[in-house]
Design brief:
It is built from one helix and six strands; from the N terminus they run βββαβββ. The protein is mainly beta and about 100 residues long.
């Protein structure tokens, strides 16, 4: 998908329409292994009685998506304030033109 490097957009800080530089937001890291749900599951697996319900089996993966939605960041060229736009369309490759 091809996206222009600059775009005119409303800036909430300047309170007017200005030129914005477009960049792609980096994806976040992995989820932590000590999340609340992970700790709860780990505690259920240990101790007397074992797991309260049948062991979770591998889910059958039908229709797995092969691309992620793109997050775009817009930086105002006047006040240098950055705002994150709505999640874009799915695409394998993003190209700034």
């Amino acid at each position: 998908m091809k996206i222009p490097k600059a775009r005119r957009k409303y800036c909430p800080k300047c309170k007017k329409v200005t030129d914005h530089k477009v960049s792609q937001q980096k994806s976040g890291g992995q989820r932590g292994v000590l999340g609340k749900g992970r700790r709860k599951l780990w505690n259920m697996k240990h101790g007397y009685g074992g797991f309260p319900y049948p062991n979770p089996q591998k889910s059958q993966r039908w229709g797995v998506k092969i691309s992620k939605k793109t997050n775009l960041r817009y930086t105002c060229k006047v006040c240098k304030k950055t705002s994150v736009g709505k999640k874009g369309r799915r695409s394998k490759k993003l190209e700034m033109v």
